[in-house]
Design brief:
mainly alpha; 9 helices; disordered N terminus; disordered C terminus
Length: 223
């Protein structure tokens, strides 16, 4: 009997692991089903019951993973924040501009080339105060992380210094957001291709003083 005790101790972790894997699988099914329905029907038109039916789970199961359907969009946004966090880690060890380029195109790729999903998400942002608040929170976090990336580039002389890192992060974030909105409205080419083209236009203006023309701001805009 004594010999069976170690076996029992070793058997417990796999049961825990299987349970956690099962929970992760259910959560992913709910998440993916919700995004599919948001793209097909719209965020406001999709109910929790619709999501659980599509995921083939009980209605009450949804609330074990997401307090509200708005939290599904928060999870979608969390994936993008995680990408910026990974970019910051890379920027601490690698040149900043290639990291920023990869970030710009990878963020575009996360939409999985689905304009209907993006349109549903932006519509939710426009019409639902809790979703809009979550968007603002996410933009703030992303901007703070990007500010750190730009600051690293400025410290190394890789990025222009006549504009603060915070302002560069804000302007770049606005450009990337504009890309996804414009593409979602009129997806004539792939989102990644569009983002890459815009980045190639933007990148020279991030270079240090000796490699680009002086910044003129609004003074350079002609009527």
């Amino acid at each position: 009997m004594a010999s069976s005790l170690p076996a029992a101790r070793h058997a417990a972790p796999p049961r825990v692991n299987r349970r956690e894997r099962h929970r992760a699988e259910i959560r992913d099914r709910l998440f993916r089903a919700a995004l599919e329905l948001f793209a097909e029907r719209g965020f406001l038109e999709t109910t929790v019951e619709d999501i659980t039916e599509a995921a083939d789970v009980g209605k009450g199961t949804f609330f074990n993973y997401f307090p509200t359907k708005e939290h599904v969009l928060a999870t979608f946004g969390a994936e993008r924040i995680a990408a910026v966090e990974r970019a910051l880690e890379r920027a601490r060890k690698e040149p900043v501009l290639p990291v920023l380029r990869a970030l710009a195109t990878d963020l575009a790729g996360q939409a999985k080339e689905r304009p209907a999903l993006l349109r549903a998400i932006y519509a939710a942002h426009a019409s639902c105060a809790p979703v809009r608040a979550e968007l603002q929170k996410r933009l703030h976090i992303g901007r703070r992380l990007m500010t750190q990336i730009f600051a690293l580039g400025q410290e190394r002389g890789e990025i222009r210094r006549d504009i603060s890192a915070a302002e560069l992060a804000q302007l770049t974030q606005l450009v990337l957001l504009g890309i996804t909105v414009a593409w979602a409205m009129n997806p004539e080419s792939s989102l990644r291709t569009t983002a890459t083209g815009v980045w190639e236009l933007l990148c020279p203006n991030l270079l240090p003083d000796k490699k680009r023309k002086p910044f003129t701001g609004s003074r350079g805009v002609k009527a």
